Amino acid sequence: MSGPLVVLVGPMGVGKSTVGRLLAGRLGVAYRDTDDDIVAGQGRTIAEIFVDEGEAAFRTLEKTAVQRAVAEHDGVLALGGGAILDEDTRALLAGQRVAYLSMDVEEAVKRTGLNTARPLLAVNPRKQWRELMEARRHLYEEVATAVITTDGRTPEEVTEAALDALELKKA
User: Fold this and answer.
1) Which pairs from 87-92 meet CB under 8 Å and 24+ separation?
2) 99: in domain
3) 171 lies in a domain?
4) CA 159/CA 62 separation, integer angstroms
5) Is residue 170 part of a domain?
6) What is the pLDDT of residues 119-165, one digit of tens each?
């Protein structure tokens, strides 16, 4: 299988970056995050891109970043929370080993405080988060090889569950 060893998908704040780094360390491979790629390439935060150019412009940048990362990276790859909204991106993930990290709204509140630095959660964050998840959950599940629940688990426990669910050997 060409492409990343593992692709992590899931909502903002679920722990893709933290678990991704732990997973990469356990597997002895590199970690990459498409949000980091976008920030580095644009020289500004994702929130700034949303404010300056809007969500559609950001999604175009994101689609390109995901295509590039899937083609170039062979370690653990984390995608931004909304990357799976793009049909071409979902098609690109077919045949990849994809772990969907899931959490419920109460866990999201605990982890992110549903803070306003997240551009899609600026107004009524709890309601916004629920609506985002209702719109996206089936897409995460569609691309997932395995679903790993993160509620009440430490990053280390989630990493173990991902290794087991994906049947990956630990370095």
Assistant:
1) 88/63, 89/63, 90/139, 90/142, 90/143, 92/66, 92/67
2) yes
3) no
4) 25
5) no
6) 555 566 677 777 878 889 999 999 999 999 998 899 999 999 999 99
The values of phi and psi at residue 152, to 5°, are: 70, 15
d(CA 166, CA 6): 9
Q: Which residue has the tokens 């609506």?
A: 131
Percent of the chain with pLDDT over 90: 66
- Among candidate residues 62, 5, 52, the one with its CA nearest the CA of residue 29: 5
Number of domains in the chain: 1
What's residue 118's pLDDT? 56
Count other Cβ atoms within 10 Å, centred on residue 57: 12
Residue with token string 């175009």: 60
Q: Which domain holds residue 108?
A: 6-165
Taking a C-beta distance cutoff of 8 angstroms, is the pair 166, 99 a contact? yes
Give 9's strand partners.
Answer: 100
Predicted model pTM: 0.88
